[in-house]
């Protein structure tokens, strides 16, 4: 699976100001609403509900929030780079500034799990995280995310 199949270049925000995890997830919901024709409130609520089960902060300043939503026919990604890291209750207690959200159809099953694993694997790459933090241009972020992912596809 390539990140190009998950991430549209218009589903990226390169420099977002947020004061909390909740605000960061709202940014994700706003992008999803605009790009996918979803209801921002429903997306935000679904992401918050998932967070109640346990933080999606996977460490190293990265979060991979995810939710299953009505109205989707395939997996979609949204990437947000925060200007300043926010507390996210991550597994390593580090604040988060890189958010790659996955939005799945209600019946995604194993496709959802494979996408989570792929995104987590890609964002564990230290060089990639450093490069993502150095730019706020959506096109550059898209190139970094899809270029690294495609060359290391599993």
UniProtKB/TrEMBL annotation:
SUPFAM superfamilies: Phoshotransferase/anion transport protein. One of its GO terms (molecular function) is protein-N(PI)-phosphohistidine-sugar phosphotransferase activity. Gene3D superfamilies: Mannitol-specific EII, Chain A. GO terms for biological process: phosphoenolpyruvate-dependent sugar phosphotransferase system. Residues 5-148 form the PTS EIIA type-2 domain. It holds the Pfam family PTS_EIIA_2. PANTHER family: NITROGEN REGULATORY PROTEIN, PTS SYSTEM FRUCTOSE-LIKE EIIA COMPONENT-RELATED. This is PTS EIIA type-2 domain-containing protein. It comes from Asticcacaulis benevestitus DSM 16100 = ATCC BAA-896.
């Amino acid at each position: 699976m390539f990140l190009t199949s998950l991430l549209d270049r218009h589903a990226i925000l390169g420099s977002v100001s947020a004061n909390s995890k909740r605000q960061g997830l709202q940014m994700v919901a706003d992008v999803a609403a605009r790009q996918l024709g979803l209801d921002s409130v429903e997306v935000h609520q679904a992401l918050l509900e998932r967070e109640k089960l346990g933080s999606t902060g996977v460490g190293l300043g990265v979060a991979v929030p995810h939710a299953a939503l009505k109205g989707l026919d395939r997996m979609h990604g949204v990437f947000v780079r925060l200007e300043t890291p926010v507390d996210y209750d991550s597994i390593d207690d580090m604040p988060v500034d890189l958010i790659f959200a996955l939005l799945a159809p209600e019946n995604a099953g194993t496709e959802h799990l494979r996408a989570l694993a792929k995104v987590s694997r890609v964002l564990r790459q230290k060089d990639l995280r450093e490069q993502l933090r150095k730019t706020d241009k959506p096109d550059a972020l898209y190139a970094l995310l899809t270029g690294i992912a495609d060359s290391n596809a599993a």
